[in-house]
Amino acid sequence: MTEPLETGIRPRSSDKDSGRRSRVLMKGNEAIAEAAIQAGCDAYFGYPITPQAELLEWMARRMPELGRAFVQAESELGAINMALGAAATGARVLVSSSSPGISLMAEGMSYMAGSGTPMVLVNVMRAGPGLGGIGPSQSDYFQATKGHGHGDYRVPVLAPASIGEAMELMATAFELAERYRTPVMVVVDGILGQAMEPVELRFRNPERHAFDWALTGAAGRPARIIKSIDLVPEILEKRNIALQRKYAEISRQETRWATELMDDAEYVLVAYGTAARVARSAIEKARARGIKAGLFRPITLWPFPSRELARVARHAHAILTVELSSGQMVEDVRLAVEGRCPVGFHGRMGGLVPTPDEVVGALKALHGKVERTRERERKQQQKRHAGRAEGQSAHGRAAVTGPPERTHRAEADAHASVRDGGER
Amino acid sequence: MTLNPSPELTARPGVPRLIYRKPDVLLDRSTHYCPGCGHGIVHRLLAEVMTELDLPAHTIAVAPVGCAVFAYDYLNVDFVEAPHGRAPAVATGIRRVRPEAFVLTYQGDGDLAAIGTAEIVHAAARGERITAIFVNNGIYGMTGGQMAPTTLLGQKTTSSPSGRDAALMGYPIRITEMLAQLPGVTYAARGSIADASLIGKLKAMIKRACLVQMEGGGFALVEALSNCPVGWGMTPQESLDHLKGPVIEAYPLGVIVDRGVAAAVAAAAPAAVESEA
């Protein structure tokens, strides 16, 4: 399985000399599918739904070619449970769907989380609720990050912002799934699924480990059981506690994010996926107008990079969250920021994408408001200082503004184990 | 795979013939099933057949939701628990990545004939090479005796307190007959645990359903008509009498279809394939 595979991608004549590292133009859904194949995916189960159908179609052609398993299931329920069965035997399994189908998969995800079955699920998000529409959306953030199905569980959620990054994260997703015995979600919006971008054909096939839990037939060893049921509350609570420990470990070890132009940024845009691409363009425009803006981009939506964002919030004048939703991630942003600075939001719904100009407009409005408040407070502070002895601290400042100066404290060291996502 | 009957079970001159022995694959556990419940008999038959066919070491079984969710407490083979009704999908996933495994599902009638109809129909339609054991006692036992799709007309349950009324609650489903129409189904039969002679016949059906898989056939299903004394509000003996009377009348016993492995293989592969049958 570690041998490099033929990709099934026909490089154009201009690409062919550089072989496997050549850059080719690929559609997101197909690139994700091929990256999963190259990452050693043994089995794929799916059901047609827009805007992820090309992923299923790519698998339908490629998996049988390679002697691997492909089943077009009778429903998303069927697909996710086929995944449960295949993954229970230790196979590397991929399932993909789009929002309404992902809802149907909540049951299976909960069982897999509860029984510790690794699997990767790609959600090419479309607009909801209900059948909604087929336009791009990020309105499944709550669903992805707050547990999806029933019970106390989470799954790591990876959110690439380009097709190239999506390809890279497919290998990471399998790695995380197997390392922590958990389902992992990769979320892209319909744009990343449908758009074509030049990508490097650079793949990674994570190392295989022998699983001491996989069902292979009990020859020469005690029988193994993969289950989530436990009717004794005391035992079930222990299982739950173990699960929560696992999640704490994932939070410590696997939080990922990226930052751009943050060194001098006073205004921070927080966005993931396609929204981050829009935010990037908006930042350029804002800087041209004198607003020092930077980008903070969560790559793992769960675990959310809360600590790092909190650190950013200490220096930021304000944060603007941009999403293709009514404002879902912004709740986690506010929880992380804890009032250290104002948090604004701009989003579009229904399959629409905010334009950079719209975002700049929202940023300018926020900027104006914050600067006015800061100016007012500066004056009040001067007045107070004038009437007091020198050196007195500025307690009682309204929580809405960030302090003009505050230094890093011990907290920064305590969180040093958080992995840096780095610049992209 | 070859037949490997336990040597102790084979008569030899001068050696006493062993006629009763607990199959090794059956674990020594006290049962959680209610007194008089038929699940234990079906477990036992399955254990005997699996032992006789030398299956336990490479079996991957799928447990349902319902009374038999704890099947793994009794059968010493690898088990995965499926969500309610999804056992055939889970088994499909196993089958597709483990062609060498013996794949077994065990489901009740609420699981298979209500919430899991899509999964069972499509696993059967695909002709998945799995052996499905379907225990039909006409009621939701685990949740307290509610009406199942298989509940007889007029039967009182906790969710049909005045008896099942066809006008409001529809008719019992003979799902094994429905499935038998699908070309992907190599073998479909209905037996019962109602008495010793029927238990012997049921065992033969289970064995055939296992052999179909071992020989490369398609989907094989055995429905075991069973009882639920507690859910039916009867003594164990009354429940067996009821089973032999109106229940078997509503669900006729016998082999519903046996297309033979050769037919299944031919249907699965357009090219000529070697076959013994």
Brief summary:
By secondary structure, chain A is of the alpha/beta class. Helices cover 41% and strands 16% of the residues of chain A. In chain B, the strands form 2 sheets. In chain B, strands 2-1-3-4-8-7-9 form a 7-stranded mixed β-sheet, sandwiched between helices. In chain B, strands 5-6 form a two-stranded antiparallel ribbon.
Question: Can you give a write-up of this model?
Answer:
The complex is a heterodimer of chains A (about 425) and B (about 280). Chain A is an alpha/beta fold and about 425 residues long. Chain A folds into 2 domains: about 15-205 and about 225-255, Rossmann fold, CATH 3.40.50.970; about 260-385 and about 400-415, Rossmann fold, CATH 3.40.50.920. Chain A is about 40% helix and about 15% strand. Chain A has 14 helices and 15 strands. Chain A has helices at about 30-40, 55-65, 75-90, 100-105, 105-115, 140-145, 165-180, 190-195, 235-255, 275-290, 305-315, 330-335, 355-385, 410-415, and strands at about 25, 45, 70, 95, 120-125, 155-160, 185-190, 195-200, 225, 255-260, 265-270, 295-300, 300, 320-325, 345. In chain A, the strands form 3 sheets. Chain A has a 7-stranded mixed beta sheet, with helices on both faces. In chain A, strand 6 (about 155-160), helix 7 (about 165-180) and strand 7 (about 185-190) form a beta-alpha-beta unit. Chain A is globular. The two termini of chain A are about 30 Å apart. Chain B has about 280 residues and is of the alpha/beta class. Chain B has a single domain (about 25-270), classed as Thiamin diphosphate (ThDP)-binding fold, Pyr/PP domains (Rossmann fold). Helix content of chain B is about 35%, strand content about 15%. Chain B is built from 10 helices and 9 strands. Chain B has helices at about 40-50, 85-95, 110-115, 115-125, 165-170, 175-180, 195-215, 230, 235-250, 260-270, and strands at about 60-65, 80, 100-110, 130-135, 140, 145, 185-190, 220-225, 255-260. In chain B, the strands form 2 sheets. In chain B, strands 2-1-3-4-8-7-9 form a 7-stranded mixed beta sheet, sandwiched between helices. Chain B has a two-stranded antiparallel ribbon with strand order 5-6. The two termini of chain B are about 15 Å apart. Mean pLDDT of chain B is about 90; it is low at about 270-275. The interface of A and B includes residues 71, 73 and 75 of A.
